[in-house]
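Course assignment 3, question 2. Fill in each field.
Student: A.L.
Task: Predict the tertiary structure for the chain below.
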Amino acid sequence: MLPLTEQTLEQELKALKEKSYYEILGVSDTASGAEIQSAFHDFSRRFHPDVHRGQPESFRDKARAIFERGAEAYGVLRVPRRRSDYDLTLARGRVRLDDPESEAVRPTAQKSLEDLCQTKGAKLLARQATRAISEGKVREARDLTRRALWAEGKNPELAERLQALEELVKMGAG
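Answer field:
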């Protein structure tokens, strides 16, 4: 790991625009909650503003901006429901859950799979799919979502989520 300099911080800031939350924390998309927490602690020891009190203000500002993105990543990945929403957002090609460019899809992305369902059976399958996503089992989640959609009948938002899961499977995820 390179020592932090103004130049390395500047490079890291530029790279953040293209990095997923998983990449920011340096974990795989199948990382457990404990692995994500450990990675965030390591990230914090490197970028937390308090660690750099003796540095010039411009240095601290860059470190703070990087730390804020890491905190954003941790805040999403540590909560299974938000993490599953993020995985679907990532499948759509966006690296941030609340990406301003994704305004059109945000309402659907914010609802859980269960919230999208009306029938009891579909809600149960959706809960199981969300759990599978949080465990990195994307194929299983896709299959459960497919069954939930069948139980629901016509449900365009759920069909959109199923399509995103199909894309994740095609990309080689779990």
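Instructor remarks: Residues 80-98+108-174 form one domain. The radius of gyration is 18 Å.
Grade: pending
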